[in-house]
Amino acid sequence: MSSSRKDLSYKAGISIFILLLSFIFCILIYNLLGHMLFEKLSTVIGVVAESSKDMEILAMSQLKSEDSQYIAIGKEVLKRYGYSSTKFIFLKDKKTVIYISFLFSILVGSMVYINMRILSNNRKRNIEKLKNYLERTNKGEYSLNLNIDEDFTILSDELYKTVVSLRELREQAVQDKINLKDNIADISHQLKTPITSINIMAQLMESNEHNKETQEYIQRLNKQIIRLESLTNSLLTMSKLDADTIEFKKEIINIKNIVDLAIEPIMPLIEKKNIGLNIIGQDISIKGDAYWLGEAFLNIIKNSTEHLEANGKIDIFLEANPVFTEVKIEDNGNGFSKEDLPYIFKRFYKGKNSDKDSVGIGLSMARTIVEKHSGEISAENKVEGGARFKVKFYQKI
Predict the structure, then answer these.
(1) End-to-end CA distance of the chain, in Å?
(2) Residue 329 pLDDT exceeds 90
(3) Computed over its alpha carbons, how large is the radius of gyration of the chain?
(4) Contacts by 150-156 with C-beta closer than 8 Å and gap 24+?
(5) What is the per-residue DSSP string for 92-123?
(6) Percent of the chain whose predicted confidence (pLDDT) is above 90
(7) pLDDT tens digit string along 20-38?
């Protein structure tokens, strides 16, 4: 039997039971009142019979009459002694009726309460089933196997339709990401061949003797080739990150080692500008992919380095608490302009003070990598001047 049929049978059974209980209660009260009336009537008849046989016969004949002439006289006599239609039963008998009525009220009230509790528990159980279904849906299980009561059938049907729609949208979004990644990968691959050819020709031209003006053009050409190669590789990497096709390792890695790894490729620039670099803080570790986190920190530190003047300073603070692990990267440069600050991590955004060769993708890539390691990144200006990047990882080893 289905859950809805069980619920319907239960409600019908409770209704029938309460009706039968009420009927039995009415019969009991009727019998009780009849017994009381019989006792009082027996008393009166006994007195009459003791006084006169003729009065006994007359009284009994009047009892059988539907419209006796003695009714009005009897009411007047009872009234003189303080009795009426509402005070005919003695007080002790009233207590009995009230007591029985009270017990019946408690019984019916208990039945109603139990019924409400059972219905409430059924409702909670159905809500719990719906909650568990949504949790399974979030984990990728889309089968509809709720087995809930009839009252929740419409809701479950609508929920299933919504889940199916969300699943289709999710699958379409994933497919769109994969298509985008494939398209960018194809474009990047197609670009690499002509870029390589141009690079080779530029090298051949550079090896020959040219006048000063031609040599300058060749140098500019080499710079643009390098920039184009960097942009192509960055686009390919971002497309892979967007499509979730990169499997990040979950190794225990030391944050300081990652920072050292990130600094290595830009050490020539740091030394050229004579920038002071300090790593301050705890020896802490997190779970993640050393290579990709190195890429993230490389882009952040590189951004600070490029915006610093000669003899600047970069401080990297490593901290940890029970909630998160934090890496703060601070410099003593000019900081961010108010107009640029809300868009720092937006893809292809170039601030007013950005390098002319920048493509505006490094910080966006850093944010994506950090977020895929259960973290977040933010940027702000220091009160005393300079920029500050804050990277937080909400994870436990």
Answers:
(1) 49
(2) yes
(3) 46
(4) 150/3, 150/4, 150/7, 150/8, 151/4, 151/7, 151/123, 151/126, 152/126, 153/4, 155/130, 156/130
(5) HHHHHHHHHHHHHHHHHHHHHHHHHHHHHHHH
(6) 19
(7) 777 777 777 767 777 777 7
Helices vs strands, H then E, count in the chain = 10, 7
C-alpha–C-alpha distance, residues 378 and 363, integer Å: 10
Which of left, alpha, beta for 308 (phi over 0: left; psi -120 to 50: alpha)?
A: beta
Pick from 352, 296, 359, 358: which is nearest to 327 by CA? Answer: 296
Q: Are strands 313-320 and 276-281 parallel, antiparallel or unpaired?
A: parallel
Average pLDDT over residues 134-150: 66
* The pLDDT of residue 182 is above 90: no
Mean pLDDT of 231-256: 79
Distance CA 344, CA 361 (A): 10
Half-sphere exposure of 160 (CA within 13 A, CB side): 12
- Name the burial class of residue 8, with classes exposed (0-12), middle (13-18) and buried (19+) by CB atoms within 10 angstroms of its CB: middle
For residue 348, give every residue at least 6 positions away whose Cβ sits within 8 Å of its Cβ, in sequence order, or none.
359, 360, 361, 364
| pLDDT score, position 360 | 73
In the block, which residue shows the tokens 């408690």?
106
Residue carrying the six token digits 């691959």 = 189
Among residues 327, 322, 319, 248, the alpha carbon closest in space to that of 287 is found at: 248
Reported as a pLDDT band with limits 50, 70 and 90, residue 376 is: very high
Confidence of residue 205 (pLDDT cuts 50, 70, 90): confident
Strand-strand pairing, 387-393 and 375-381: antiparallel
Instruction: Give pTM, 2 decimals.
Output: 0.53
pLDDT at 346: 86
Highest mean pLDDT among 26-35, 167-176, 306-315: 306-315
Nearby residues of 56 by Cβ (< 8 Å), 6 or more positions away: 45, 48, 49
The 10 Å CB-count burial string (b at 16+, else e) for 175-203 is eebeeebeebbeebeebeeebeeebeebe
The set of long-range contacts for 122-126, using a CB threshold of 8 Å and a minimum separation of 24, is 122/7, 122/149, 123/151, 126/151, 126/152
